[in-house]
Write a structure and sequence with these properties.
By secondary structure, this protein is mostly beta strands. The chain has 2 helices and 18 strands. The chain has a single domain, classed as Porin, CATH 2.40.160. The longest helix has 11 residues. The relative contact order is 0.14. The N terminus is likely disordered. It is found in: Cell outer membrane.
């Protein structure tokens, strides 16, 4: 349940966040708690052994956060977000142990859009969640390319919405500050650099997105290495039915030798009844000039017990070819050329 704590809450946390109750900042405390019981086949690095575990964030990443706004007058607002990821199964933080690893930014918003500074979602993350049949659950598009849910440290971002068109641009002076000398190196501004731009347009029942993302190596020696992604997606919604399709081309130049790959996906969702929704998706990674390809199939059922609490059942099968070793989720791997099955049942609560 989102609790808008205005004067009293602002006074309580104002000293920590650097503002007083007199600023009359509206602060929202929010979060997601998600955990389930999971089975994964061929879970060892050599493909041997199955895994049974309690896992976190199977339907949505578990998190808690603070979101604030202040009316500055003249149509301007001061804004901030501090969002921390957590593993419900162990109580530990996610994303490299950062306190606010999911998001941490501050900025100014107005009729022209908003400009924000800090650790932020990249442009792929901003636009492609609704264009993934599985909507970024672990068994999803992210199993083929986790950078679709990428975040960048030290980022400057602009986002503007003009009718049915939303545009965004991001520039990071070092996308991963946990790497020693991996970003913001004096005299080497290209180290760890990331930039991206994208647009999302909706008209009637249709929507589409186009995004470009580019990253450089995280050392002085590799700053000239480039990794580029070009992605496009379509969505059609009619009543309880949603269909999506997408494509991403990757030019992988951060490692040697470099490679190129194409990723295609197709799927959708259908609300059988107001409380029950099914999601299904097919994803294929085609590595150019190689037989190291992979295809996965996902099926998910979500039943709403209330407006804030869901139970779910997710299943996926990853079919690897050649030396591909993708798992059903980005955090999982298997032996080259071996298939993997994952099934998880759990509960999610939003507050």
């Amino acid at each position: 349940m989102k609790r808008k704590a205005k004067r009293l809450f602002a006074a309580g946390v104002g000293g920590l966040l650097g503002f007083g109750a007199q600023a009359q900042t509206n602060v929202t405390l929010y979060g997601v708690v998600d955990a389930g019981v999971e089975y994964v086949s061929h879970a060892g690095s050599d493909g041997a052994g199955s895994m049974y575990r309690v896992s976190s964030g199977n339907s949505a990443g578990s998190r808690w956060g603070l979101r604030g706004t202040e009316d500055l007058g003249g149509g301007l607002r001061g804004i901030f977000v501090l969002e921390s990821g957590l593993h419900v199964d162990t109580g530990t933080t996610t994303l490299g142990g950062r306190l606010f690893g999911r998001q941490a930014f501050i900025g100014i918003a107005g009729p022209w859009g908003q400009v924000t500074l800090g650790r932020q979602n990249n442009t792929l993350f901003d636009f492609f969640v609704p264009l993934d049949p599985s909507r970024y659950k672990p068994y999803s598009l992210l199993a083929h390319d986790a950078h679709f849910a990428g975040r960048a440290d030290n980022a400057i971002k602009y986002t503007g919405k003009f009718g049915g068109l939303t545009v965004s641009g991001l520039y990071s002076t070092g996308y991963d500050a946990t790497i020693a000398a991996g970003s913001e190196v004096p005299g080497a501004p290209r180290v760890g650099q990331e930039m991206g731009a994208g647009a999302y347009y909706t008209t009637g029942d249709f929507g589409m997105a186009l995004v470009y993302d580019q990253r450089r190596g995280t050392s002085v020696a590799t700053a000239g290495n480039l990794e580029r992604r070009y992605a496009a997606g379509l969505i059609y919604t009619s009543g309880p039915f949603t269909a999506v399709a997408g494509y991403r081309h990757l030019q992988g130049g951060l490692t040697s030798p470099g490679f190129r790959s194409n990723l295609y996906w197709l799927g959708g969702a259908y609300a059988i009844q107001p409380a029950l929704t099914l999601h299904a998706g097919i994803y294929r990674t085609d590595r150019r000039a190689s037989d190291d390809d992979a295809m996965s199939y996902t099926l998910q059922a979500v039943y709403s017990l209330s407006k804030r609490t869901d139970v779910y059942l997710n299943a996926s099968y990853m079919d690897n070819k050649g030396r591909s070793s993708l798992g059903v989720a980005s955090s999982l791997k298997t032996a080259p050329g071996l298939g993997q099955t994952g099934v998880v049942a759990g509960i999610k609560h939003i507050f």
